[in-house]
Structures are given as C-alpha cells and as structure tokens.
TrEMBL record:
One of its GO terms (molecular function) is glycosyltransferase activity. Keywords: Transferase. It comes from Desulfurococcus amylolyticus DSM 16532. Residues 103-241 form the Glycosyl transferase family domain. It comes from the Archaea. This is Glycosyl transferase group 1.
Length: 280
C-alpha cells in the first residue's frame, strides 16, 4: 500500500479501525489489529521500499492508477499496461449467457472480498439504512470466510438489526457468482484499494449498477461508464443516498467500459516489454 495521499491513508486506517471495532470490540485483537495496520502502512510507504523499487530496471503495473497513487516519480518509472487484466472469449460468453437469463430479485450484492480494505463494515452500514426503506431486501456477500470470522460477522449483523438479512454463501463457482450479480438490483462496492476491479467490470457487463468510492483505480479505468456512480471516499451517507436513488429508479442505463483487453493481448505486451529490456 505505497500511497502518497495522506487522506487516502487515513481512510484506509479508518476502514481497518471500523473492522476491528465492529468484530473484535474491547479485545486485545482489536488493539493489536489497529496498531498493526498503522505499522504496515508506514512500512509499505517507507524510503527503504522506495529504494528497493528504484533498483529494478523494469516496473510493470496493471493500471495507471498505481503509479499515480505512488506519486509523480513512479508515474514516469512504471509502465502501466492500462489495463493489465482482461476477459477472454470464454468469460464473455459465460457473462452473456448469464445476463440473458438473469431476472432481478430483491437483493443487493457486496462487490468485494469480506475484509476491511474492501469496506465491508461500511457496506453493512449502507445496507442497514437501505433496509429502512426496503424491509424485505437482503445483502449477499460471497467469498471464503472461516467459521470464527463468519460467526463474528453474523453476530455483528444481528447487533445492528440485520439478523436474517445478510447472506454469506461462502466461496462459490464463478458462474454462480455471475448469477448473483446478474440477478441483484445493485452492487455496493466501498473498496478503499484496487488496481482495476473485476467486481465493477463484471457487474457492468452483467447489467447491474454499482455504487462505489471515488478511488483512483475506478476513476482511471471506468471514467464515463454508465451504471457506475462514485462518491467521495469515506462518504457512507453519500454512498447510501446514491444506492437508494438507484433502487428507486426504473430506468437505469448500464454499459461496460470501453477499454477491456483480451488476456493474449496483455501477455504479448508484457513479453514485448521484457524483450526490449533484455535486448536493450
């Protein structure tokens, strides 16, 4: 997490603080987790890490946002594949099939991993407010969660009035995750850190709108994409307002981003960069 922007670092720390306070209140793990977050963020942005990176002849990133996040020196040093992730024909075919068969149901999908950096606790805060207007709606969050953490999450959900409204199906096959997204009314994605974000890419391709934080990765890679609404990072109230606006709208235009590469194109670009370095 080599990040030059002080406010961005503060938002990341706040996200981890929310996580530990919600799930481990009053425990040693809460205090240790908060302290470790600050230490890791300081180390990752340290001069020693910068010196190590300067020792390499070639630095490649999957997004222009990475160099931007690191600072002006790195924007010129790092070669961004822009983007360095993509979809192959099998992916696109599967997405097309699932989207054509999708039927919107009364649930929302949390778009990221179930962890602090993806803003899971903030996602629950947004969803809690949504349930005041949509009493029957549920929140689905896929992904592997160990039994102990699952128990803590469900306990916290019950404590804030979301008992029976949070669904944690665990790790699911990709096609099943696609079905969840295609059938959802909305994807909530309060992520604090990304390089490109498959969660947003898949949702837009599957015809489901997304509300998210205005972090560099989403600005750089999804600017102008219809169906994606961005709010200032950390603005939970703003995220909630946009989510409610989408849920209350009958006509929402959604379109996938224009620049999506195929994996073989990305591989050729990487090979070309390495060949230039070796032959140079």
């Amino acid at each position: 997490m080599f990040i030059r922007d002080r406010r961005r670092r503060e938002e990341i720390i706040r996200a981890y603080d929310n996580w530990y306070s919600a799930l481990y209140p009053g425990s040693v793990k809460e205090l240790a987790g908060k302290a470790r977050t600050r230490l890791e963020l300081a180390v990752s942005s340290s001069r020693s890490v910068a010196r190590l990176l300067r020792s390499y002849d070639l630095l490649i990133s999957v997004s222009r946002s990475i160099g931007y996040e690191m600072g002006p020196e790195w924007e010129s040093r790092i070669h961004a594949l822009d983007p360095g992730v993509g979809l192959d024909e099998e992916d696109l075919g599967l997405i097309k099939t699932v989207r054509e068969r999708g039927v919107k149901e009364d649930f929302i999908v949390f778009g990221g991993r179930i962890d602090a950096l993806k803003g899971f606790i903030e996602g629950l805060e947004v969803f809690k407010t949504i349930t005041r207007s949509y009493g029957d709606i549920k929140l689905v969050a896929t992904g592997q969660v160990n039994p102990s953490l699952r128990e803590r999450i469900m306990h916290y959900a019950g404590r804030i009035g979301l008992e029976g409204k949070l669904v944690l199906p665990g790790a699911v096959p990709r096609i099943e995750r696609f079905r969840y997204i295609a059938n959802a009314r909305l994807v909530i994605y309060p992520s604090h850190m990304d390089s490109y974000s498959y969660a947003v890419l898949e949702a837009l391709y599957l015809g489901t709108p997304v509300v998210a934080y205005d972090i560099p990765a989403l600005r750089f890679n999804y600017e102008g994409a219809e169906g994606l609404v961005l709010v200032r990072e950390g603005d939970v109230e703003g995220l909630t307002a946009e989510a409610l606006n989408i849920l209350g709208s009958k006509d929402i235009t959604i379109s996938p981003p224009g620049k999506v590469k195929k994996w073989d194109e990305i591989a050729r670009e990487e090979v070309s960069l390495i060949e230039k370095l070796v032959g140079g």
